[in-house]
Amino acid sequence: MENNNRFLKDYLQLEHPYLIKSYLWVCIIVVNFFVLGISFVPHIVLNMQVTKFVFSISLILIIFLDIWAFYIMMDPNKRQKQYTLFTGLQTLIASIILLVVALEFIGLLLGFYQYILPLIIIYILILVLGFRFHKKALKTGYYYKKGGKNSKSVAIISTFAVLGTIFGKVLARSANQGGAYLILGICSLLLSYILELGTHNLYKYYLINKYEEYVELYELPKKDKSKKKTKRINAGD
Predict the structure, then answer these.
(1) Domain count, the chain
(2) Which one, of 217, 164, 196, 162, lies nearest residue 12 by Cα?
């Protein structure tokens, strides 16, 4: 079954350049302070070669994402398509980092090695099922039937949020250090699974390049264009 052209055109709508900068700042702050911050904990506590390696790789990847984000912000009008690729890769990288950090907490710090493989399998299943869901949604128009897309996302995120709250309240009763590590591990794991939802932008970027005739780029208003041109002329003088 081919993609429904009308639904596909709506799905391939790009983000407005004026909003891209705001979204990128939020992405940078969240990834830098939360993802990198929580990945620093096992590195400090255990001080093992494997945790050092994980933190080093995480730091390199996040610095790469930061540089890329600033590059897009320099001229978001020309990099609207690239923003879609960025968001897909950023959520994928951040979710993988958080998954590895969660496994460090649960496996290395708490010794629950038997849960490592099942948690990885769940991660892969969410990734595969999410991809299949988006393909099917584009064929059936599910995104645009009674707000299916928004309600689905809100329901999934709300479910994870409720589960996280329940786990947090139960485990917070434990005053020992193991309880704190378990809370951090579960929070990292839940956020990793949530961030997987954003990886659909990788498939969206593929479709953007495949069906370019359905993609409409936003253009700067004439006033903004003239100002930009004037600035360049003055700079040349």
Answers:
(1) 1
(2) 217
How far CA 205 is from CA of 12, 89, 121, 194, in Å, comes to: 8, 10, 26, 20
Residue from 193, 215, 219 nearest 206 by CA:
215
Q: Determine contact, residues 27/90, Cβ cutoff 8 Å.
A: yes
Q: Report if residue 125 sits inside a domain.
A: yes
In a domain, 84, yes or no: yes
Query: Each residue of 64-81: pLDDT tens digit?
Result: 999 999 999 998 888 888
Band the pLDDT of 147: cuts 50, 70, 90: very low
Report yes or no on 58 lying in a domain: yes
- Domain enclosing residue 186, as ranges: 15-218
- Are 39 and 97 contacting, i.e. CB atoms less than 8 angstroms apart? yes
Q: Is residue 224 part of a domain?
A: no
